[in-house]
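Lay summary

Proteins are chains of building blocks that fold into shapes. Our project writes down both the chain and a compact code for its shape. Here are two examples, one after the other.
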Amino acid sequence: MTGERAPADPIQAPGTPEPVWRAWRALTDLPRVDPSEVAGPARAGGLVVVAAHPDDEILGAAGLIAAHLDTGSRVRVVLLTDGERSHPGGPIPPPLLRARRIRETERALGLLGPAGTSTAEIVRMRLPDTGVAEHEAKAADTLVALVAGFGTCAAPWSGDVHGDHEAAGRAAALACASAGVAHVQYPVWMWHWARPDDPRVPWDRAVRVDLTPELRRRKRDAVACFETQLRSHAPGRDDRVILPPEEIEHFVRPYEVVFR
């Protein structure tokens, strides 16, 4: 708007509404891949999903996780941080917020597999929230052993315009190259700050994983577990909701997009 300065942080600026993405034909025309071939021809060995914060793995790759669990594949989720700084200065102290966010991820992952089956393994690296870049080399070294022996690793996109996400993506890429594991990246905040045909986005490397109605239902249920991100911590006060309904719309589509 004339006379107003745009926020320096594109994540804080107004985002691209989901109907705009839905109307963009290129998303419909993306190459479609089976979950087992998301990183190339069918790969045995299971799936590792790296997340900068608890909920990244659900927002960006819950369908991929659920599809692998359906086939009995081994799934490991590596949380680089516990997300304890999502609400700096808010009414929930960081140690309590950390505990709540881990419980939310545990509940969410428990909803992704078929009833009565095992869920994904969770590994916590316990790096400081908002400080992954400062520990990027350590993260990459630790991830080498955590991805070794798996067929595919999915990690946050290294261009997501969030420092922790980008550092997580770079660390995972280095680890996968060292361990000889196929690697893909999933966007999270990109759906907010980017726009259709945005030249900052590697659309030429994007593929689409279609979700069955059942996988989509499980993902919706899993997303709903993250109450710390979906609700105000202090109703009636100026307390930011990290994932308001208009943001959640980006993640409950009948497909997921990853970059190869």
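And here is the second example, written the same way.
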Amino acid sequence: MDKTERLFSVMDALRRHRRPVTAAALAEEQGVSVRTLYRDVQTLIGLGAPIDGEAGVGYMLRPGFFLPPLMFTPEELEALVLGGRWVEAQPDAGLAGAAKNALAKIATASPDDLRDRIKDTGLWPVLMRGPQEPTPVLGLVRAAMRNEKALHIGYADESGRQSERDIWPVQLAYYEGKQIVAGWCCMREAFRNFRTDRIVSASETEQRYGRRRLQLAREWREEWARQHPDWASEAGGN
């Protein structure tokens, strides 16, 4: 790896970290000495990169910095295309359109025209159930999580009995053929999982979540770990 590639790699590493990361950790990740890493950081700062921190404390990029994706390795491009095509095939019309647009932006954001490479990477997601009908509630759930506002839903149980309740969506899982909303049920005052194919109606409300979604997500993961200790152990407790 030449110096230019190494500098881009350091910037990519800093973008992945939301908190200060030490020079030693960056150096190990890049496969260089700490002294070389210090020099690379000073070079980047001299070129105008908004890097905060200092030796012995750690480094991080200032919020709001945007570095255009000037180059992609073949494997990075294949990963983006495969992931984007999988999302395009989901019944979430909003995300499907966003994935298509994102691939188009990636193709034109590089000095090299990547449209031909993206068109034929040879990698395609295989969906055993075939195309699915759009599920509008998915967009409502994602908006609720972003805005931290409750959804009012009508929900049918296994026997078809319907009930209405407010929920605070926390996580949204996309399985092949179905999607699951994990959230706080205000009626049960507990976390519950809701199959989107059993949500018979849904509407936005102006009611704010009772707690921040990140806090709810932590509580949900902790409860999941207690209920599924074998899974939590295999996943490293995450």
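What can we say about the second shape? The chain has nine helices and seven strands.
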